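task queued by scheduler; priority normal; single chain, no ligands, no partner chains; default sampling; output format set to structure tokens
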Amino acid sequence: MKKTTDSPVGEEFAALCDRAWDVLVPAHASYLANVSPHYDEVLHEVAQRTERAGSLGKTDIAALVVWKRLSAQTRWVTELMSLPDTHVRAVTERAVTAVRDTTVPRSEAARTGRGIIWELPGFRTGDALASAILTAAAPTRMAVYDSRVQHALDTLGLTLTPTPGRYGRYLQLLDDLLHHGGARADGWTARDIDTALYWTGANPPQPEPA
């Protein structure tokens, strides 16, 4: 059987999930209380355009670069901007179709979509911007990954290695968390978990005083 996550299974993983939810619930509340409700307007606008067009163009990707606060002064940006927008849309259209395919598990859809986005300049390494694009393509199904999310996972003892296929394993890990969350996970989406992880990574929980 193909390994779909980096995490342990069984009782050990269930215990890790239970401890993680003790952190995720207040972290999500803090995120909502401290981050401007207008901050994600760019993501929402790109998602709406993607819903109508079925693809993302260079303008949409540029907006997500700003939303993720990434540097545009890199070689890959020049290479991407030098491509015809029709080519970029042809690639992203296939990725959009992949992540919206509900006939396959979410993690498999994520892995396929990530593999397609890999074809564009700037998406051969790292998952931050690629995950933003895929989340804009399927905001109720996908989730954003970045270094703060990774730091939170490490802090919580939830292993996610950087080996190929990480984004698919990340979505499987979020599914596992939702599965083990019980009543605390009611109404939560993968995107809710990623915002809680993001906040945790930026504001790691402090150990109890001795």
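post-processing summary
- The chain has two domains: 11-36+144-202, 41-137.
- Residues 41-137 form one domain.
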